[in-house]
């Protein structure tokens, strides 16, 4: 008689448990929020302006202090690692990236240079491989690789913002709004990576 060994379930790509956030001394933006995103899942948060969607994304990616916010309760984990109140640099190195609202590209730098700014956690051959993978995902960016990013159209800038976040090979990617690039002609390449080694990262917010 044989028995099948039971393996523990894989840790979620993102696990937010009981998180509360406050701005200053009096404004409570989130109260006991729970959210779980498993590897390979895409989870969308919907709500009115001021509902706390961007605040949750900032809590996950460590950007709350820059906006005067503080996590007052709960914890945030990614693949088992505790990210609660960690610095943005630590969180990116752990494999969590964010595409910021408003694109926030470096307009005076080329498309290629913008991508490389997003790949600071990888080096050498891996950096080059990730860059070519982004050009395969977004052929329009490949056509404009040596062009100043500030001269791109709005949709192309959104593609660049998404590609830059993916340059670090994140296990979890947070978008503060659905990228307009995925609503236009490139929607097929956003949803179905054409590079053989590409693995879509879970997305939330």
From TrEMBL:
Residues 14-205 form the ABC transporter domain. The keyword Translocase does not apply. It comes from the Bacteria. GO terms for molecular function: ATP binding. Pfam families: ABC_tran. Keywords: Amino-acid transport, ATP-binding, Nucleotide-binding, Transport. Residues 185-205 are annotated as: Disordered. PANTHER family: HIGH-AFFINITY BRANCHED-CHAIN AMINO ACID TRANSPORT ATP-BINDING PROTEIN LIVF. Belongs to the ABC transporter superfamily. This is ATP-binding cassette domain-containing protein.
